[in-house]
Design a protein that fits this description.
There is one protein chain. The chain is mainly α. It has one domain. Helix 3 runs parallel beside helix 5. It is globular.
C-alpha cells in the first residue's frame, strides 16, 4: 500500500479537526466554519497549492525570528502557477511539496513525531526513520511505484497538520528567549513593547494570534487594504472541494 502512513491516513483522520492555524485570520485553510468531512474525496492541484501557501504563511508568522518559512518554501510557493488546478494530485507530488516543510521544521529543531502519532501515522513508519535528519509522515521505504497513487483530502490534512504554536513559546531556562531560538543562537529580536504597524497591539501579541505584525490589519479590514493573497484559487468540482 502507499506507505502505511499515507495509505491509512484518511482512515485515521476522518474526524481530524486540525491545528488552530487552519482557522486563523491569516492562515485559514477552510472557507467556512470547519473542515470538510469528505476525507475520501480526491485532491486536486488547486487545493494542494492553496494549503501549501497557507502553511507557508503560518510558518512565516510563527518562525519569523529565524526567517519564517525559509527560502526553499518561499521559492516553492512562488513557483506555483494558476493553471491546471483541476488536475488530480498523486502521492509523489504531495510528498515533493510537503518535504520542503518537514525539512524546514527539522532545520529549526522541531520534531513532529508526537503530533503525527496523534493523527494516526503508524509508529512503525516513524521508527523506521530513526536517525534520519528529517522526519516525514510517510514510509520512506515504500516502492517508488506507489508514488503514482491518488491522494485524498484526509491524507492532505494529515500531512499539513503540523503545529508549532506551543513549541515556539517554550522557555525552559526562563531567560526570556524561547528555547528553540537559544538552540539556533538567535536572541529574541522582538522587544516586548514593539508595535511595528502602530495598530496598538504589540508584535509579539500579534504573532501569538497568527496576525501579521507588519500590517495594520484592523485598518485593512475597514478600508479593504492589503491582504495576503497568492493569486491562486481552489478549483474543485462539487462534492470534492475544501468547503
Amino acid at each position: 500500500m502507499v506507505l502505511a502512513s499515507i495509505a491509512t491516513l484518511s482512515m485515521a483522520v476522518i474526524q481530524l479537526e486540525g491545528p488552530v492555524w487552519w482557522y486563523g485570520a491569516e492562515t485559514r485553510v477552510w472557507s467556512d466554519s470547519g473542515p470538510t468531512r469528505e476525507d475520501w474525496a480526491p485532491v486536486n492541484a488547486g487545493q494542494l497549492k492553496h494549503v501549501a501557501a497557507q502553511a507557508k504563511r503560518y510558518l512565516d508568522l510563527r518562525l519569523a525570528p529565524a526567517g519564517g518559512a525559509g527560502s526553499e518554501i518561499d521559492a516553492l510557493v512562488e513557483s506555483f502557477e494558476n493553471v491546471d488546478n483541476f488536475a488530480p494530485i498523486n502521492v509523489g507530488q504531495l510528498k515533493h511539496v510537503a518535504a520542503s516543510y518537514y525539512r524546514r521544521l527539522a532545520a529549526v529543531g522541531f520534531s513532529p513525531r508526537s503530533e503525527l502519532l496523534a493523527v494516526g501515522v503508524p509508529a512503525a513508519a516513524l521508527d523506521a526513520q530513526d536517525g534520519a535528519d528529517v522526519l516525514v509522515p510517510w514510509d520512506t521505504q515504500a516502492p517508488p511505484a506507489e508514488n503514482a497513487a491518488p491522494v485524498n483530502i484526509g491524507q492532505l490534512k494529515v500531512v499539513f497538520s503540523f503545529d508549532v504554536d506551543a513549541w515556539v513559546e517554550i522557555d525552559a531556562d526562563g531567560n526570556g528567549n524561547p528555547d528553540w531560538l537559544d538552540a539556533l543562537g538567535i536572541g529574541n529580536p522582538i522587544p516586548p513593547g514593539q508595535d511595528t504597524d502602530g495598530d496598538g497591539m504589540t508584535d509579539l501579541a500579534e504573532i501569538a494570534l497568527g496576525r501579521d505584525p507588519n500590517t495594520d490589519e484592523f485598518a485593512a479590514e475597514q478600508i479593504g487594504a492589503e491582504t495576503f493573497t497568492t493569486g491562486l484559487r481552489v478549483f474543485a468540482p462539487a462534492g470534492s472541494r475544501l468547503p
